Recover the amino acids of this structure.
């Protein structure tokens, strides 16, 4: 980051002081040389006017056109008073108009006036007058043009950043909507069970009090679990669409069926499960399954049939650990180590990380040395967001 970006006001103050020194104390020497003007040769008219013109550069970001007008007026006065370097301040002002100002009808007028003053100032120059005017005009217009190009490039970069931010928010919102829909189905399934169990308890209450009490205990447990799941729906909107199904969402118990589908597609996949606890909360079970599903779909999409993959499930202290590794040696290889893998029905790594984040966990995905990809997810077994 350059000083004009990091400390803009201080940099402009230094620039203004430098412009003042160049305008007052620099003069043309023999040939193309530059000499220092003794203080005794400085005109009493040029000194305060040059100070005012240089000081105006401090506000070149806020009012570039006004600063350009002041710089042109100062140059005209210094030409009359014997100053020879007033064009330096005008060059900075023209650049500032292009960099910080909008294009309007006064910009061509300012450039034209600068070229006229350049022609007047160059009458006594040792070089041919026409050459001085042509070269000087190129510098005048070039200063404005460089500033303008930098402004346009900055605007395009800002627009691209806004578009990328909006796209990231859209992807996250879409993924959260999908997750909310799945959680909605989990809660709906539990409430359905509660209704059935409550009806059964009512039917047998007169003949089998113990059975009715057991059924109501199951209703209580299911109700607590349903309320626990509902906490994860707060702040997430669910689209007004029909549900795909009324049954429960898949979990880790359904992994063998998922792996069979992946094997049928041509990917060699092995499952290693070590100490995964039973009775996981429904959202943890669901999100763990979805992470494995999206990671395997990425393998199929980016490594292709023929790749060798291993899914490892383990348990740590109050968490489950999911690891999906592939060797990348299928019929389709990723475009490079920085490529982003996309999942089915979601947005790949974004979806996996969003699911883990909602549970208070993490997902790390990166290429492996020697080829292939590795996805590691840590999901708290309690499934409570941090």
């Amino acid at each position: 980051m350059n000083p004009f970006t990091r400390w803009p006001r201080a940099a402009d103050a230094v620039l203004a002081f430098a412009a003042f020194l160049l305008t007052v104390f620099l003069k043309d020497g023999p040939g193309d040389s530059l000499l220092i003007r003794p203080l005794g040769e400085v005109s009493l008219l040029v000194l305060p006017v040059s100070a005012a013109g240089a000081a105006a550069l401090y506000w070149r970001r806020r009012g570039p056109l006004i600063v350009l007008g002041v710089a042109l007026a100062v140059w005209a006065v210094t030409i009359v008073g014997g100053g020879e370097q007033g064009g330096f301040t005008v060059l900075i002002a023209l650049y500032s108009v292009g960099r910080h100002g909008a294009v309007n009808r006064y910009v061509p007028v300012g450039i034209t006036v600068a070229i006229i003053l350049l022609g007047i100032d160059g009458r006594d120059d040792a070089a041919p007058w026409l050459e001085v005017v042509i070269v000087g005009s190129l510098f005048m217009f070039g200063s404005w043009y460089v500033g303008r190009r930098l402004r346009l490039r900055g605007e395009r970069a800002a627009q691209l950043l806004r578009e990328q931010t909006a796209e990231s928010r859209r992807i996250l919102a879409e993924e959260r909507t999908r997750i909310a829909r799945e959680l909605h189905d989990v809660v709906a399934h539990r409430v359905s069970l509660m209704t059935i169990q409550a009806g059964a308890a009512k039917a047998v209450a007169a003949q089998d009090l113990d059975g009715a009490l057991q059924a109501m205990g199951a209703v209580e447990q299911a109700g607590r679990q349903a309320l626990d799941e509902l906490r994860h729906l707060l702040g997430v909107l669910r689209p007004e669409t029909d549900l795909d199904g009324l049954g429960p969402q898949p979990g880790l118990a359904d992994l063998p069926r998922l792996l069979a589908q992946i094997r049928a597609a041509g990917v060699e996949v092995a499952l290693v499960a070590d100490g995964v606890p039973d009775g996981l909360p429904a959202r943890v079970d669901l999100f763990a399954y979805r992470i494995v599903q999206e990671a395997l779909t990425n393998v199929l999409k980016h490594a292709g049939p023929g790749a060798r993959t291993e899914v490892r499930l383990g348990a740590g202290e109050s968490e489950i650990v999911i690891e999906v590794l592939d060797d990348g040696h299928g019929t389709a290889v990723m475009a490079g180590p920085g490529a982003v893998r996309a999942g089915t029905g979601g947005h790949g790594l974004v979806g996996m990380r969003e699911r883990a984040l909602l549970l208070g966990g993490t997902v790390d995905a990166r290429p492996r040395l020697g080829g292939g990809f590795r996805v590691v997810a840590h999901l708290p077994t309690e499934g409570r967001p941090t």
